[in-house]
Sequence to fold (689 residues):
Amino acid sequence: MALFVQLALNTLQAGSVYVLFALGLTLIFGVMGVVNFAHGQFFALGALLTSVLVPALHDSLGGSVAIAFVLSSVISIIVVLALAAAAYQFGFRRYLRDMVGSFILSVGMLLFFEGLFLWIFGGVPRVVPNIAPGELRILGAAIELQRLIVCAVAVAIGIMLYLMLGYTRFGRAVRATAEDAGAATLQGVRHKRTLLYGFMVGSFLAAVSGCLTAPLAVITPSVGNDYLIKGFVTIIIGGLGSIPGAIIGGFAIALLESVVGYYLDGTMATIGMFCVVAVLLLFRPRGMLGHVQH
Amino acid sequence: MQLRASLRAVLFGAAFSLAVAPAFADDVLKFGVSAPMSGAAANWGIGCDWVGQKVVRQINDNGGIRAGGKTYKVQLTTYDNLYTAAGGAQSAQAMINRDGVRYIVQSLGTAPVQATQSLSERSGVILLTTAWGKTIKGPKFPLTFTNSNTPYEIFGPLFALVKEQHPNIKTVALLNPNDATGQQAEAQSKLEWGKLGVSVVSSSFYERGTTEFQSIATKLAATKADAVDLGGSAPGDAGSVLKELAVQGWAGVKLYPAGTGSDTLVKVGGKSAEGVYMGQGADFSGPTATKLQRDLDTQAKQALKEPLNILQMGVWDGVMAIKAGIEKADSIDPKAVAKALSSAKPNTSYGPVGYGGTATYGSPQQLLVPVIITQIQNGQTIEVRRVKSPDASGG
Fold:
């Protein structure tokens, strides 16, 4: 029993961050029709800045690490959003629904940002102090308290995004643009503004997931690459452009990692992940819930 | 008209370069380093280049290298091998065929080294590496040498010491990255633990770049092994695994035999890194390091924002080894230098050390630097035992 609870907790915690990351990726694809390979770098910048700022703010302001973490996260998210706005304004805006152009642009950005972050932050792995020391024991399984908190925050943000897209004017505009940009414009949706906001919300999700990952993982300038691959696998499984698909895909990947990683090993889990993608691409290329066509 | 003038200028420039280059090449020895300069392991390559430029500057400032009645200056360039076989092949082509490098003073990563070796041996180029493969050295590869200890030198003395200090160890669980480095570490671990009568109850691999280690730790903890051997894992990964193992209640003997970064291990693992035994985690800032190593480490911390590890220090030793080989051979011919290396005693960062390892590899191609066994105690890397190579005949 303890083993199954442990695997379930592992899945829940890892899956919640994967979902958040993939939601940003799928939202940008849905709205703009571009596959943003630089998404992992926005994630990495969020994580790197948090890992630098938490110890600095904690030392200078005192108080609890959790407060320093919240402040650091806010600052990190603002910096990432500024970078994302520049990337959109000077880059992505010119390659909307241009898969080849945006692919080259975003891969270039990925390499440039990775080099830039390596130069600025150095390659030495960074660690954020525990934001909520302690462990929780549930039916014989153990999980760090900070992991549970991160999981809860990720789930809350995911629900907020879901509600925003489903029930607000902005959400309807985003979904309409994703379905048919031309028709949405004819209905009065401000096309350019929706695209910009959609990109910014997607980048916000990358930044938030980066900040939330900072206390849980070892942070280096290349930390985003692992998440980027899993993000793509997630949205391919769930369906490109599909929000519920990203949620299902994220947890499916985490479950696969947990169970196969335990019974076989990490390498087999990675192979299994790509096998699932290959099978889906053969028999259901739009993914489980995919419907957007570009 | 303008086009013709430009063409003439380009042709003139090219002809001038061709005429002048050999003149320079006569007085300059080109040394190459093949290391990851981008991606997750880029900091290793950056550190290698930094150490390389330091030692080259020192040699040049002291008058260069003398051979055959001439004095040569040294020029060192680091090529990005991406830590992959394909990157190793590309960088080897660039080094050897394009830039005319005849001495590769350091090459990181087993896979890129194997790719580089396929060209270097054919082209008569000396290749100094940190790679572990037993099959990359020996009489079949007379131009390939290893500068730092490998599992064949480290694991035996390390495991024996651990078993001596913890005689109750009966079982061990292994974890390694799924690449050539990890596979070789795993094979040697199984062999050495077997010799001590310790049974390997689980052996797992993971992909480099993994960020979530909970499931891996769950698996290791479930084996209830007396010891965990983290083989060739990256320091951050090893720290993450140990942290998760502690959360999940596992408390046994911890080994990180091929780990190079004790600083990172402690930073990431925190208290869970306490007591970890390491075979390559030398602390170059500590009292057991030589003065040169301490100075380099201090400067590296300022310049690179991180301490040096054994692999990076190996660049210093590699450059000094080639210098010693050239001076002993009194020739810059790589084949003559390779022959001379087997009996040379380069002034490495550890002091004068020779090449040996005939019993293991079939010929003296292993630099006999000491095996430094360390343990994390109160967050510090403490030297527990320094084992001189049993085969010091090369010196």
Q: What stands out?
A: Chain B touches chain A at residues 38-44, 46, 178, 204-207, 209-212, 214-216, 218-219, 222, 235-237, 239-240, 247-249, 264, 267-268, 304-306 (CB under 8 Å). Chain B has two domains: 2-149+290-297+308-369, 151-278.
